[in-house]
Structures are given as structure tokens and as C-alpha cells.
Amino acid sequence: MTARDVDAMRALASRMLRSGTPGTLSTLFAARGSTYRPLGSMMVGFPGRHAGGVSGGCLEEHIARVGERETRSVPAAMLHFSTHPDSEDNTPLLGCGSSIDVLVERLTAGHLAFLEEFGAAVERDEGSLLACRARRYGASLSVTREWLRSADGHTETASDQDVLLHYVPPLTRLVIFGAGDDARPVCEIGASLGWHVSVADRRARYATSARFPHARRVLACDWDDALESIRFSPRTAVVLMTHSLDDDARVLSRLSGRRLAYVGVLGPVHRRERLLEEASAFGMASRDPVARMLRGPIGLDLGDKSPVGIAVAVTAEILAHFNRRPAMSLHAHVAA
Length: 336
Description:
With about 325 residues, this protein is an alpha/beta fold. Helix content is about 30%, strand content about 25%.
């Protein structure tokens, strides 16, 4: 779940608790087969309104309505959905050939505090692991959550409880050097994926919050100051798109020693080679890890040369790199 999702859930939960509106926190607890969202996805809602989600949109209103009813007398309930529901009820059918269990809890102030903790975990540069335990007491459920310290996720499980281990990945950071018009869709798509996007340019007329409203940081300063102000992590992608060979080379040379996962530059292969030559003149060694990981041209071969098409290709390549995927067609993958 992205920081935007969590912020929306927190805001809605806060309003509901202040107004006394009975609401629920729902969690995708178990699944068999394909699901639209990963396990651990959450939703805050009440009939007619929700934030977050546990499906592709086909179950949210039903869960909000039925969940509110089911938790009037008990603190939690487990709802089951499949492709073959009982003919006597009105449970929606899942069209993806799977079955899922959704944990629904009556919303409390404790859940708002948990969402604050979850929001903080989403923003960390290190991964987090959450254990959600649902213990059965006759017909009712008792739910507890615990942030695990152990990286291997080992946790004791009693015979009368089910446990969901939810891994919260490290924050993905995207740093764009260059604030031209073609950088704007790259920023927007990255932000929509929940990435922390920073945009930097030495030209103050381009590097403005008005031009990049979805960036977390917009820096209008010289490259050295920008690099000192930006936080880098092992899950950081850098895109060089200043459209100036000299500027790109200065930035690239100063990236030496930074923790990065991906660095790429716009332009054809020969421009990448010239960029490496220029960066060496600024002190970057040819065997520097950042120089060796430099990609160019960047982006998947989608055949669209428009600014938005290039932005889709670039962000798709970065996404595939972080997820360790070959970025091939799912249809071709299945057919093979």
C-alpha cells in the first residue's frame, strides 16, 4: 500500500471516530489463487464511503456494508469470498477464479494509532514485518498485531489462531535530475506508484512546486547542494534528464559512493559513452560501481516517443528492476 493510501485511510478513520460513525478496518487476510491486491492490503470504510482497498473495486462496498453489520455485537469477523458462494446469500462472485478471506474489525482509536505506525513503516528505507493474529473464541475473533524484529519472520502460532505475516517493503525513492517538461510525467507516474520523488535542477524557473505538484521535494540549486540535500538508499533510482551533457556528467560523477539501485540517462548509446568520458574528467573512475550500473538508453521498448510514452517506458523499467522481473508480456510468459 502506498503512503497516499495510508494517509487516506487515516484521514477517514479520524473523521469517523470524531463523529461517532460506526466503521470498520478490513484486511485481506488469506487467499487461494489469483488476487488483485497483495495480502495485508487494508481498507477503512462504512456504507457509502471507503479509503484503501482489498480488491479491484468489486467487493469494497459490500465489505463496508456487511462488515459494519457483522461487527455491531462482536469486535471482529472473517468474511469469505469465492467463485462459488452459497446460493442463499448475496455475496458477490469473484471473477478471477480465486477465494479470499477478509478480516473485518470494528474501528477503534487503537486502529487509528496502528495506521499511524503503518504509515511510518511505509516511509522507512528498511523493510518491516507485521504479524496480524486472529484468535478464535467460539464464534468470535480476537485480533492482535505485532511488529516483528526478526528478519526471518519467525513467530509462534497457537492452534486456535491464524497468522498473517505482512511484509512492508522499503520506500522506493526516485530522484530526477532535470526539471524540463519531459520530467513532469516521470514524476507524476512515479508518485502515483507511491514512490518518494525528488526533482532537482539548477534552473529555478523550471524546478518549482507548481510544475511538480506530486514531488515530495523540488530543489532549485546547484548540483552539489542538491546532492547533499537528497537522501539516497539501496532502493533509490536516479534518472539523468538535464539535456546537458556537462550537467549530466557533473551529477553522475558526484553520485560516486552513493547507495543506489538504478541510474539511467536519456539518449542513445553514443551519448551514454560520451557521458562516461565527461564524468571521468570530473574524477569518476571507469570501474566505479555507479558508472558500471549506468543505463542508457533507458526505458522499455514500447515504441512511443511522446513525453508521456517515454515516462511510462522509463518508470516501467525501474519498476521491473526493483521487482526483479524480466519485463516481458504476461501473455508471452504464459504462452512460453
